[in-house]
Amino acid sequence: MSEASLPQAPAGSTPPSPLAELWRDFRRNRGAIIGLVIVVALLLCALLADVIAPYSPSEQYRDATLQAPSWQPVNGHRFLLGTDPVGRDVLSRLIHGTRLSLLIGLVSVGLSLSIGVVLGLLAGFFRGGVEFTIMRLMDIMLALPSLLLAVSVVAILGPGLMNAMYAIAIVMLPHFVRLTRAAVIGELGKDYVAASRLAGAGTPRLMFDTVLPNCAAPLIVQATLGFSTAILDAAALGFLGLGAQPPTPEWGSMLASALEFIQSAWWVVTLPGLAILVSVLAFNLMGDGLRDALDPKLKR
Amino acid sequence: MISFIAKRLSLVLPTFLGITLLVFSLIRLLPGDPVEALSGERGMTPERYQRLVHEFGLDRPLWQQYLDYVWRALHGDLGLSTITHEPVFREFLTLFPATIELSMVALFLALAIGLPAGILAAMKRNTVYDYTVMGASLTGYSMPIFWWGLLLILFFSVTLGWTPVSGRIAIQFDIPPVTGFMLVDSLLSDDKGAFRSALSHLILPAVALGTIPLAVIARMTRSSMLEVLREDYVRTARAKGASTWRVVAIHALRNALIPVVTTIGLQVGTMLAGAILTETIFSWPGIGKWLVEAIHRRDYPAVQGGILMSATVIIGVNLLVDLLYGVINPRIRHH
Fold it and tell me: What is the pTM (predicted TM-score) of this model?
């Protein structure tokens, strides 16, 4: 569609761009801003992990195991958040864990979103048998609580970081499919779709080019919330020994491998959990804020 | 109403079959040999291997094997555990009461705190109460339960020494299982202090398991209450001079609770899954811990049976909640 064909708005009353409007609504929500700031900080941690982590996440300082967090250097090294049972710097492992957690979120949400969107589009466009099959399948997947389904999938695929990501992607799939289908069905009756169809657009073009961009809002919200689900479930699987395996600095498995030291060294157990909680909370806050800003029904 | 029930039932059957298909394919999709997976033996003689292939029915067409599996499952035959050589169904039934007990107490805690908190937040909207409840509930909702459980242990068991760290009851009590619920059984027994011990073992796991349902229930109650408080009949009641508490208790609450019932039903499933984590942390001898151990020991018949049984229970509860929803909310029946 060319810009020239659109009616020009009278000068001086230009409506704000959709992005500016979104930002204006999002900014009003204090919680959402806190979430955004934390997410940006996590992102920086993940991207710059090699630069800002004081030590390597796998380097073992055997002469400084289970050091409590302190400013005082131990044998010439300063472990701000202490060391774990084999003498690795907890701070460095947490920073590298950020990279891993965000990566898990990115991969599982990316996988789930792309497959979910295609299935949802198919269900919305070709009603009848296709829709019935896809939606019943999704109903079956929704009947199992997310962690039980994830554990079942890992039981089939075997424990490991990659399989945990697949499992989480599968768990989130029904939500993306349902959202896409509902949004597609809502859009299909509108005039612009009929116009595009009359102009000769084929089904794939209608699906991805005409309709999909207009279904983006709920998907963006769900994808943001999906990050929190992914981080939480990956940590739970890691904790159960079904996700990332040691010595990977994954928060859940870090916590599990330090369990026996819960009485003597609080920091090896509490800090990874705190990292999980803060990141999950941040994505939830941001997701809620995005939902309020994007959903016109909630705007007041 | 009958067509409503029929419609719900027609959704349950394919769901159940889907789960059996998932569980059935688990053995076939596993890397490695299904005979070894089902028997738990390795390096057996070719004769024994052939005998087991026949015994497990692996020499028959897949669809026959599947139908056979479903048929047996419907009759409570889920195969033998490869570790204990006990019937999986019986192991499940032995451990299930522990999980139900834990879940029920957790749900009770979640309701006892979540409902009033949600109502309070709705009535005092945009006050410090509201923000506290909503903030706490968002935190609870984002909480990694395995970590939360550990924090509870660290604080109440290790630092304060108030509660034991693991198990269902102190070792010195020998409680004969009557109902399978330790709280009830310990009351029935003559042992003084047994009930106290059982309760002190139960409280921390129940708090950990109840946290997410509590957060969800508080959030749901608040938003549902806010919706109802905008209705005309609430305004009418107010106009007639009814006090705020009367309006809430008599007029608003009943209707506000309708969507909350669904939420509670959905939380039962979440709790059965949450039990996987909570039971592992607190060494609570229920099906969650059993399932994780079965996965680690590669006890595949137990994994299969555990997933199938938990899923069946969850489907059953969801169906029950759907039907209940139809009863308390006549509007839904006609859709």
Answer: 0.88
